[in-house]
Amino acid sequence: MRRGWLLATAAVLASGCGGSSAVTPHPDAVVRLVRIARLDQPVALATRPRDPALYVAEKTGRLVSLRDGAVLTVLDLSGRVSLGGEQGLLGVAFSPDGRYVYVDYTDGRGFTRIMQYRFVRGRAVAASARPLLRIRQRYNNHNGGELAFGPDGMLYVGHGDGAGGGDPTFHAQSLHTLLGKILRIDPTPRGPAPYVIPPDNPFARSRGVRHEIWAFGLRNPWRFSFDRATGDLWIGDVGQTSWEEIDRMPRGNSGWNFGWNRFEGNASYDSHAPGTSTVKPVYVYPHTAGRCVVTGGYVYRGRDIPALRGTYVFGDFCTGELWGLHPERGGARARPLGPSLPDLSSFGENRAGELFAMSLSGGVYSLAPA
What we know:
Elements: H1 3-14, E1 31-38, E2 42-48, E3 51-58, E4 62-67, E5 70-76, E6 89-94, E7 100-106, E8 112-120, E9 123-124, E10 130-135, E11 147-149, E12 155-159, E13 181-187, E14 195-196, E15 213-216, E16 223-226, E17 233-237, E18 243-249, E19 263-264, E20 267-268, E21 283-286, E22 294-299, E23 312-316, E24 321-328, E25 331-340, E26 344-349, E27 355-359, E28 363-369
Antiparallel strand pairs: 1-28, 2-3, 3-4, 4-5, 6-7, 7-8, 8-9, 8-10, 11-12, 12-13, 13-14, 13-15, 16-17, 17-18, 18-21, 19-20, 22-23, 23-24, 24-25, 26-27, 27-28
């Protein structure tokens, strides 16, 4: 996801920074960025229970730990990942008990793989690799890549429509494919199958559809997260040519259709696309002033920046701007938080709820009060 990757992302995968809400100065919550490490194209950050280290995935294939200023390789997939377009090692998550680590990457054929590894003495055991999912796709973009365990202990997987541009084959609206979806599965590390379908998945009892689907109608949910206080699911869905969007699914809901490619943001995109009963974004912004790719983040629940508590922090890859979103009656307002981080690839959250931002240019930063 370096500049070239980003531009490919912006042009092919992104093309959407839209907004119906104005961006106005934030009176209180202003932050600064403090660099804590420099890595090779960092794209995802995870923590492990009872472990003070931060674990960061590099797009080029390494998973590293950051602790007390030291960088240690804990898993090296650099010989297995493909690196064209938006491909690479894209996501990482630890099981709730910390015994397993899960990664999302594109293999040599460009297909997405979700793999499980045992985690012992600070390292992933390479010989313990166990495939969970393999998702076929024709193009090297719209791979999604987010992995996260929800408050229910289930593993959530984000994947884009995988269809080049415009989703001409309507993957996102089809319940017969895993493309353009957020999936929910229950990994079974020692079971006969790599995972099982949670019985309360919205389509678990439906015939002829993929039972893993939790939400659909997404173009490229590059980054999503759960609010640790409420359990709400927040999604940054990358747009096509005009609009970027932020979606929110309150805890207790499932099976929502977020509208792509019938809609891009709130705007009609393809009237021939199937799909009804779509859910509108909580916030959209347009491709203006150089903005073009949303980077989804987290609702801040830490203690270091009191004015930021309860604020959804996100940004734009192309401009590097960081914003705070405040859901309010009659809409939502996004306010700039001060700094910009070129090539803003992802955000992360530590065990205390403090936030981090990453750049494809190499930097990993903590958010601190200005």
